[in-house]
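Known limitations

Files may contain more than one protein. Parsers should not assume a single record per file. Below, a two-record file is shown to illustrate correct handling: read the sequence, read the token line, then continue until end of file.
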Amino acid sequence: MAQLSEEEKEIIRKAKEIKRKVELEKEEERIRLKKELEKKREQDIRRDIEEDVDQLPEDYGEPVKRKVVKKQQRSNQLDASERARSHRSSTTSSVENSRKQRPPQRSNGKRTEQKEPVVVKKKRKKHKILRKIIWLLIILGIAFGALFFFIKSLVSKTNYEALNKSYTTPAGIMKERYVKNILLIGSDGRGNVNSSRSDAMILVSINSKSKKIIMTSILRDSYVTIPGHGQTRINHAYQIGGAPLLIQTIEENFKISIDDYVKVDFFSFIDIIDCVGGVKINVTNEEVQYINLYVNEINTLTNAPQGDGFLTEGGNLLLTGKQALGYSRIRYIGSDFQRTERQRVVLTALLNQIKSSGLSQIGKIIDVVIPDITTSITDTEMTWLILKSMLYFGYDMEQNRIPMDNTWSNIVVNNQEMLQIDFTTNIEGLRKAIYE
């Protein structure tokens, strides 16, 4: 093969140099076009992101928007990477074209999938549910507040008397937070006359732990020590010093704490029974004649026609207010034990009648009954008690009395028959009945 001359070598060298320059210019042009394409793609991505964010609900908040934007950016970056690889594959040499294309990026071994529309939909659905719950709570709160203040406006008509316990709390007294003791006092007077006697004394104990309401009658002939006045029957305590002295007497003799009292006279009792439409009581024929005697006495006091409200025979009867009062005052059939039992029967029937009444009827009952009541319970406390009464209606009701069976004996003091009580046994019995 002939050797090339120096001139030919120079021509070949220059040709190769020109070829390299052409290839270099091509490569620079390719890089420039690539950068322009990536720049345009980046602008398109930013515009798409801004449009997606603007379409989100305003109440999704910035954290949710940022989360969607971040996912959208990651998605678009993956798409751009795929397109860049495709572009390099088409512009590289034949050797590079023969290489296998790399598989798309994977996250934890799984192909990345775009689920932004699903995420937004789930977030939106959860947000709507939460918003409905909030609105429901707001509406219930407003309704409860309106009911609370409505009831409070009704109970403000009660005759309020503060219970000031100026005496030292007796040693060993029973008191628990889950028990509320309210003393019901039925006097044989009218209005706020404290000189009248306490004809009925029933301790109503609401035990929120055992879900029970225990009604304990205290017999009026019980022989007790009245603080500052010596020993005599317990109903004299009310006659001497009203409800405060009666409560002190019960606390010191029976070692049980009393939180409040509610006091009604005979005529208020009649109004309360009539307001609920009467009470159903199983009356014997023997009891009818004594009921009529008391009804006749009430007719005389109220200038009602003679014979008004008389019963003709016994049976399961719906008694009016004055008939129910006559029934609860019977003392000539059986002993005072049976008398207090009748009082608890009437009270239980009254509670059952209120329980079966609708809300509108209960509101009417409150409006009529409240002015006839004298109590140490404040308006706010009374309102809460009434609201909780819906819960208390589900409690079991139990009856109890003091003195308990086989814990007493008859004695005569100043020519008057009274009940000598075994205080130790009765105190322990009260503890079990009320607090367990």
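...continuing to the second record:
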Amino acid sequence: MYEKKNKGTLKEECSKENQGHKNDVPEKNEGQKNEELKSLIAGYVEEALAKAKSVWDKDFESRIASEREDAAKLATMSSEERARVEMERRQKDFETERQQYVSERAEFEAAKELAAQNLPVNFSKMVADADKETMLENIASFKAEYMKAIEAGLSQRLKGTLPKVSKEKEQVSDPFLNGLGM
């Protein structure tokens, strides 16, 4: 016990002078560097927000102008013409939503078929079609090209020279075996 105490290995006797690595101690001007960094970041954020706000404002102004024009046209029309224009607008909106639904549905079906054939579903947008037969043809042609590309990539990676191995057995002298007399 006395020997350990002299060596300083007891828990109570350990030196508390170790303060860690010199880089662990914060520098005096580190706070100043942080403040400069924060102000620089704040400047970039403000600049980006100002650019985005100008784009939003231009878009908003153009939408307001088009709405005013439409309102002015509708005000000069008779009730029958207004009803016809409103019906055309609804029909256009309906067709847009319908096309979006059909394309999303086709993409979903394509993704299901690609997953069933163990192909990446990321390509579902490329092979999707409203007609199921056309979609299956697209998937078949995609699969053929995809497999060709995989084979070409593999053959490119596997190219190389074979390691040179001599046909003759070389007599290698091993100093360890020679020491044992073998």
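Parsers that stop after the first record will miss the second one. For reference, the second record is described as follows. The first helix runs from residue 2 to 7.
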